[in-house]
Amino acid sequence: MADALTAREAAALAADVFEEHPPATAGDRSGDGPLGWDGYARSRARAEARSGERESVVWGTAHIGGRPAVLVSFEFRFLGGSLGRRTGDLLEEAYAHARAERLPLVSLIATGGSRMQEGMIALGQLQRVARASALTRAAGLAQLAVLRDPTTGGGWATLGAGADVVLALPGAQVGFAGSRVRPQDADPSAYTAEGQLAAGQIDAVVPAERLRPALSLWLRLLTGGTAEPVPGGAPVPPPPALDGAYGAAANGWEAVRRARARHRPRARAYLDAWFDERADVHGDRCGGTDPGMICGFGLREGRVVAYAAQAGTATRPAGYRTAARLIRLADRLGIPVLTLVDTPGAANDAEAERAGAGAAIADVFAAVASVRVPVTTLVIGEGGSGGALALAAPGSTWVTPDSYFSVIAPELAAAILKRDPSETPATADQLRLRPRDLVELGVVRGIVARAE
Questions:
Q1: Residues 235, 376: contact at Cβ < 8 Å?
Q2: Which helix (H) or strand (E) holds 303?
C-alpha cells in the first residue's frame, strides 16, 4: 500500500521552504501518447483530477535546515508515480538546475516504475535520469534519496539506489520488483526498507518526524559543513590517544597483549570523542554489511571529515567495500578522510573468500592510492597484516601507545616459520611491531599523545 503523503506533503515534511519551479518545456500531452494507447488521455485526466498535479513529479528549490537544495518529490496518486516522457523532462530539468546553481539534489521517491502506456519511450527515461545523475555526480554535487512507499522498478534503480546517501521511511516497500511481478514465493521482508537496510542497500531507516533533521545533518555533512569549508587539500591531524591507552610497551609481545586488551578504547569511542556530530553510511551496496567497519561523515570544529574505522574484529569483504565506497565519495566531494585501523586481519574463512575478500581489499588499496583528498590514519589497536594496511595512508599514518602493526600476527608468523608456539613472544620481538619500533623503521610518522 502506498503511503498517504502527496508530493507536496512529502516536500513539506522534508523542507523548511519549498518553491516549485515551473516546467521549462510544455511536453507532449496530446492524445493517447506515443503508442496511441487507448484511454491513456482519459487516465491522465483522471490522475490530474485525483492528484491536482499535471505529472508524477514536482520539483523546485528548497531550504532544509537552512541549506539550499534542489528537491524532487513524486506524486503516487498520478498514475502510481510512474515515469513517462514528461516525467523524464522534469527530472532532467531538476538535475540541470542543480548543476547550474551548484546545489545538492534531494529526491523524495514514491513510484511503481516505468509507465506502461508509453512503452519503451517510458523505459528510455531511465537512461536520461541515469545520465543526468552521472553528470551531477561528475560535477561534485551530492545526491540524497528518501524512499517512500513504494519505491520500485526504475525509480529505485536510478534515483534511489544511485544516490550517494539513501534514507527510507519505516515500512516502505523497496525493490526492483513491484508486488505484482515478483515471485509468489519470494520472502516479502526482502522488499522492505528494513530488509534493504539489513542487506546493505540503504544507509538508514528514518521515522517521518525525524526526516527533516536527518536531511539537514546530511546536507551539512555532504556540502562542506560550513559556509566556507576548509579546502580538502589540508590533511586532518590524527586524534589524540584516549584515556586507557597504555604507555610504552617493554617488548613486542607486551605491545600485542595491550592492543588486544578488552578494556582499551575502540573505534566508536574515538569517533564519539573526536567528532562534534556525525552520521554513518551503511552497507556495501552489494548485499553485505560488516559491523566491524564504521564509515561515515562527521563535523570536527566546523570541518567535515569522512571516516572509515575498523572496530577490532576481522574485517569482512563487505566492510572493505563499504570503506572504498566512502573514500571515493569523500574524494568526489572534496572531503578529507580519517581512517582508524584496528583489526587482527582480514576475515579469511571460506565465506569471506567466496564473497571476494581479495578483490575487496584490493579495492580499498586502490581507493586510498588514487584519491586527491588527503588521508590520515591512526592505528588504535591491532594492525594485522594487509587487512590493516589497506586502510593506512602512505606517509601519513600514526599510532597510539597501545597499538601494534605487523606483517602478520606473531602466532601465525611462528606457525609459518615452523616454530614451537612457545616461541611466539620472541617472534613478536623479532617482528619489531611496537609503536617505537614502527617509528624507528619509518613505517609511521609518530606516536600520538593522550588527550589532555
A1: yes
A2: strand 303-310
**Span 2-59, pLDDT tens digits:** 568 999 999 999 999 999 998 766 556 668 888 999 999 999 999 999 999 999 999 9
Q: How many CA atoms lie within 13 A of 114 on its CB side?
A: 18
pLDDT single digits (tens) 326-368: 999 999 999 999 999 999 999 999 999 999 999 999 999 999 9
Task: Work out the angle at residue 70's Cα, subtended by the Cα atoms of residues 69 and 73, and round it to the nearest 5 degrees.
Answer: 125
Cell of 294: 564504521
Evaluate whether 153 touches 178 at the Cβ level (below 8 Å): yes
Helix (H) or strand (E) holding 290: none
C-alpha 360/C-alpha 357 separation (Å) is 5
Cell triple for 19: 518553491
Among 67, 19, 328, 12, smallest CA distance to 219 is for 67
Q: Which residues pair with 339 in a beta bridge?
A: 308, 377
Distances, alpha carbon 4 to alpha carbons 51, 76, 97, 339, 365, in Å: 12, 9, 29, 42, 46
From the list 354, 356, 280, the residue with the least C-alpha distance to 317 is 356
The DSSP result for 312-366, as a single string, is: SSPBPHHHHHHHHHHHHHHHHHT--EEEEEEES-B--SHHHHHTTHHHHHHHHHH
Which amino acid is present at 101? E
Report how far apart, in Å, the C-alpha atoms of 96 and of each of 91, 93, 134, 143, 220 are: 9, 5, 11, 13, 22
**C-alpha grid cell for residue 244?**
586507557
The DSSP-derived string for 40-95 is HHHHHHHHHHHHS-SSSEEEEEEEETTEEEEEEEE-TTTGGG-B-HHHHHHHHHHH
* Per-residue cell: 290: 560488516
| 3-state percent helix, strand, coil for the chain, nearest multiple of 5 | 40, 20, 40
Grid coordinates 564519539 are at which residue? Answer: 272
Q: Is the pTM of this model over 0.85?
A: yes
